[in-house]
From TrEMBL:
Listed Gene3D superfamilies: Jelly Rolls (2.60.120.10)
SUPFAM superfamilies (UniProt xref): cAMP-binding domain-like (SSF51206)
SMART domains named among the record's database cross-references: cNMP
Domain (Cyclic nucleotide-binding) ranges: 12-113
Transmembrane feature ranges: none
Pfam families per record: cNMP_binding
Record-given protein name: Cyclic nucleotide-binding domain-containing protein
Highest taxon, organism lineage: Bacteria
Amino acid sequence: MADASFSLLTGNDIETRLVRAGGVIFREGEQANELFVIKSGYVRIQVGNKTMADLPANTIFGEMALIDNEPRSATATALTDVELVPVSEKQFLFLVSQTPHFALKVMRTLAQRLRTMNKGVY
C-alpha cells in the first residue's frame, strides 16, 4: 500500500506526540478534533473487544471523525511505543482543499478499509 503512505506528514521538524505501549490514544465515543499519522510504532484499532486493524508507520487513523463530525467509532491503543503526528481539523481541511493528492490518499485509505470490512477480514 505504498501509494497511500503518509510519510510526507512525518518530517523531522513536525511536532509529535509519544504514547507508550498499552496507552490509549482515543476511545470509542469520544469527540474528535484531530487525526493521526503514525511516525513510528504500531497502533491497534478496536471496536468493543474486536480488533479491526493493527496499523504500521506512515498510515493515518482517526480521519473518519473529522470527515463526518461524529464521535470516534473505535478505540486506538499503542501496541508498541508510538510516535504520532497529530493533524488538527483545520490542518486536515487545508490539506484536503489545497492538495488533491492528499485527499485522494485519504479516500484510498477509507476505500481499502471499507473493502476489508466488507470481506469480514480483520
